[in-house]
Amino acid sequence: MAATAEPPQAEAAKPLLGLLNGIAQATYYGNPDITEALLRDQLYPEAAPQEFGALLAKMTGVVKSIASADMDSNQLEAFLTAQTKKPGGINSDQAAVIAKFWKNHRVKIRESLINQSKWENTLKNLNWRVDVKSQSRHIDQLNSPVAIVEMELGKNGQESEFLTLEFDEIKLNRMLKKLSEIEDSITSLTQAT
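The structure assignment produced for this chain is given below.
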Protein backbone atom coordinates (compact mmCIF):
# COMPACT_ATOMS: atom_id res chain seq x y z
CA MET A 1 0.00 0.00 0.00
CA ALA A 2 2.89 2.39 0.73
CA ALA A 3 4.19 1.82 -2.82
CA THR A 4 0.94 3.13 -4.34
CA ALA A 5 0.99 6.22 -2.10
CA GLU A 6 4.53 7.17 -3.23
CA PRO A 7 3.89 8.18 -6.88
CA PRO A 8 1.27 10.89 -6.05
CA GLN A 9 3.72 12.47 -3.54
CA ALA A 10 6.50 12.32 -6.10
CA GLU A 11 4.20 13.93 -8.69
CA ALA A 12 3.18 16.64 -6.23
CA ALA A 13 6.84 17.35 -5.47
CA LYS A 14 7.83 17.96 -9.11
CA PRO A 15 6.39 21.49 -9.43
CA LEU A 16 8.02 22.56 -6.15
CA LEU A 17 11.37 21.07 -7.18
CA GLY A 18 11.01 22.88 -10.52
CA LEU A 19 10.24 26.11 -8.67
CA LEU A 20 13.33 25.72 -6.46
CA ASN A 21 15.45 25.00 -9.54
CA GLY A 22 13.99 28.10 -11.20
CA ILE A 23 14.82 30.22 -8.15
CA ALA A 24 18.39 28.90 -8.24
CA GLN A 25 18.67 29.60 -11.98
CA ALA A 26 17.40 33.16 -11.64
CA THR A 27 19.06 34.10 -8.36
CA TYR A 28 22.38 32.24 -8.34
CA TYR A 29 23.16 31.04 -11.87
CA GLY A 30 22.33 34.30 -13.67
CA ASN A 31 19.71 32.92 -16.08
CA PRO A 32 17.70 35.97 -17.22
CA ASP A 33 15.14 33.80 -19.05
CA ILE A 34 13.66 32.53 -15.77
CA THR A 35 10.82 34.87 -14.84
CA GLU A 36 7.96 34.70 -12.37
CA ALA A 37 5.50 34.41 -15.26
CA LEU A 38 7.43 31.53 -16.83
CA LEU A 39 7.61 29.62 -13.54
CA ARG A 40 3.90 30.11 -12.88
CA ASP A 41 2.87 29.15 -16.42
CA GLN A 42 5.08 26.05 -16.50
CA LEU A 43 4.75 24.79 -12.92
CA TYR A 44 1.59 26.20 -11.34
CA PRO A 45 -0.71 27.22 -14.24
CA GLU A 46 -3.83 26.74 -12.10
CA ALA A 47 -2.58 29.04 -9.31
CA ALA A 48 -3.81 32.62 -9.06
CA PRO A 49 -1.02 35.18 -9.57
CA GLN A 50 -1.22 36.36 -5.92
CA GLU A 51 -1.17 32.79 -4.62
CA PHE A 52 1.82 31.91 -6.79
CA GLY A 53 3.58 35.16 -5.86
CA ALA A 54 3.24 34.28 -2.16
CA LEU A 55 4.62 30.77 -2.74
CA LEU A 56 7.51 32.15 -4.81
CA ALA A 57 8.36 34.74 -2.15
CA LYS A 58 8.22 32.13 0.62
CA MET A 59 10.43 29.63 -1.26
CA THR A 60 12.86 32.35 -2.36
CA GLY A 61 13.22 33.42 1.27
CA VAL A 62 13.79 29.84 2.40
CA VAL A 63 16.42 29.20 -0.31
CA LYS A 64 18.19 32.50 0.44
CA SER A 65 18.28 31.71 4.16
CA ILE A 66 19.72 28.26 3.51
CA ALA A 67 22.22 29.54 0.95
CA SER A 68 23.44 32.54 2.94
CA ALA A 69 24.17 30.28 5.92
CA ASP A 70 25.65 27.55 3.66
CA MET A 71 23.80 25.03 5.81
CA ASP A 72 25.12 21.52 6.29
CA SER A 73 22.64 18.64 6.60
CA ASN A 74 22.21 19.01 10.39
CA GLN A 75 21.65 22.77 10.18
CA LEU A 76 19.25 22.26 7.27
CA GLU A 77 17.23 19.66 9.16
CA ALA A 78 16.92 21.96 12.19
CA PHE A 79 16.00 24.94 10.01
CA LEU A 80 13.37 23.02 8.03
CA THR A 81 11.88 21.54 11.21
CA ALA A 82 11.55 25.06 12.63
CA GLN A 83 9.94 26.23 9.36
CA THR A 84 7.34 23.43 9.52
CA LYS A 85 6.35 24.48 13.06
CA LYS A 86 6.14 28.18 12.20
CA PRO A 87 2.66 29.56 11.40
CA GLY A 88 2.50 30.18 7.65
CA GLY A 89 5.69 28.16 7.21
CA ILE A 90 6.19 25.08 5.07
CA ASN A 91 4.75 21.58 5.37
CA SER A 92 6.79 18.39 5.82
CA ASP A 93 6.45 17.39 2.14
CA GLN A 94 7.84 20.77 1.10
CA ALA A 95 10.65 20.37 3.65
CA ALA A 96 11.61 17.02 2.08
CA VAL A 97 11.70 18.57 -1.41
CA ILE A 98 13.79 21.51 -0.16
CA ALA A 99 16.25 19.11 1.51
CA LYS A 100 16.61 17.15 -1.73
CA PHE A 101 17.08 20.36 -3.71
CA TRP A 102 19.76 21.68 -1.32
CA LYS A 103 21.65 18.39 -1.37
CA ASN A 104 21.90 18.65 -5.16
CA HIS A 105 22.63 22.38 -5.42
CA ARG A 106 24.65 23.32 -2.34
CA VAL A 107 28.09 23.25 -3.98
CA LYS A 108 27.02 25.13 -7.12
CA ILE A 109 25.13 27.80 -5.19
CA ARG A 110 28.07 28.27 -2.81
CA GLU A 111 30.46 28.71 -5.76
CA SER A 112 28.04 31.17 -7.36
CA LEU A 113 27.81 33.22 -4.15
CA ILE A 114 31.59 33.30 -3.85
CA ASN A 115 31.94 34.47 -7.45
CA GLN A 116 29.23 37.10 -6.97
CA SER A 117 30.97 38.41 -3.87
CA LYS A 118 34.21 39.13 -5.72
CA TRP A 119 33.87 42.83 -6.34
CA GLU A 120 37.28 43.30 -7.88
CA ASN A 121 39.06 41.70 -10.79
CA THR A 122 41.12 38.62 -10.09
CA LEU A 123 44.41 37.53 -11.58
CA LYS A 124 43.60 35.05 -14.34
CA ASN A 125 47.06 34.60 -15.82
CA LEU A 126 50.63 35.85 -15.48
CA ASN A 127 53.32 35.83 -18.15
CA TRP A 128 56.85 37.17 -17.91
CA ARG A 129 60.10 37.45 -19.80
CA VAL A 130 63.48 39.08 -19.31
CA ASP A 131 64.71 41.53 -21.93
CA VAL A 132 67.96 43.45 -22.25
CA LYS A 133 67.57 47.17 -22.87
CA SER A 134 69.08 48.16 -26.19
CA GLN A 135 67.84 51.75 -26.14
CA SER A 136 67.66 54.19 -23.28
CA ARG A 137 67.85 57.88 -22.50
CA HIS A 138 70.62 57.15 -20.01
CA ILE A 139 73.73 55.35 -21.17
CA ASP A 140 74.16 53.51 -17.85
CA GLN A 141 70.83 51.70 -18.45
CA LEU A 142 71.94 50.21 -21.79
CA ASN A 143 72.34 46.41 -21.80
CA SER A 144 70.71 46.14 -18.37
CA PRO A 145 68.18 43.31 -17.91
CA VAL A 146 64.54 44.17 -17.27
CA ALA A 147 61.66 41.89 -16.40
CA ILE A 148 58.48 42.38 -18.43
CA VAL A 149 55.45 41.07 -16.55
CA GLU A 150 52.02 40.81 -18.18
CA MET A 151 49.01 40.18 -15.94
CA GLU A 152 45.60 39.17 -17.22
CA LEU A 153 42.92 40.57 -14.91
CA GLY A 154 39.20 39.99 -15.03
CA LYS A 155 36.02 38.52 -13.66
CA ASN A 156 34.51 35.25 -14.78
CA GLY A 157 32.33 35.74 -17.83
CA GLN A 158 33.76 39.16 -18.64
CA GLU A 159 36.45 40.29 -21.03
CA SER A 160 39.92 40.45 -19.51
CA GLU A 161 42.15 43.47 -19.10
CA PHE A 162 45.91 43.23 -19.52
CA LEU A 163 48.45 45.08 -17.41
CA THR A 164 52.09 45.14 -18.50
CA LEU A 165 54.80 46.16 -16.05
CA GLU A 166 58.54 46.61 -16.49
CA PHE A 167 60.93 46.01 -13.58
CA ASP A 168 64.64 46.65 -13.35
CA GLU A 169 66.58 44.67 -10.75
CA ILE A 170 65.98 47.17 -7.92
CA LYS A 171 62.22 47.43 -8.57
CA LEU A 172 61.93 43.66 -8.93
CA ASN A 173 63.65 43.10 -5.58
CA ARG A 174 61.32 45.66 -3.96
CA MET A 175 58.30 43.87 -5.46
CA LEU A 176 59.54 40.46 -4.33
CA LYS A 177 60.08 41.79 -0.81
CA LYS A 178 56.49 43.11 -0.70
CA LEU A 179 55.14 39.81 -2.04
CA SER A 180 57.12 37.98 0.62
CA GLU A 181 55.56 40.21 3.29
CA ILE A 182 52.10 39.42 1.91
CA GLU A 183 52.88 35.70 1.94
CA ASP A 184 54.10 35.91 5.56
CA SER A 185 50.93 37.75 6.58
CA ILE A 186 48.66 35.20 4.89
CA THR A 187 50.63 32.32 6.38
CA SER A 188 50.36 33.78 9.89
CA LEU A 189 46.60 34.24 9.48
CA THR A 190 46.00 30.74 8.14
CA GLN A 191 48.10 29.13 10.87
CA ALA A 192 46.27 31.09 13.57
CA THR A 193 42.88 29.62 12.60
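Interim note for the steering committee: The radius of gyration is 27 Å. Residues 2-27 form the longest helix (26 residues).
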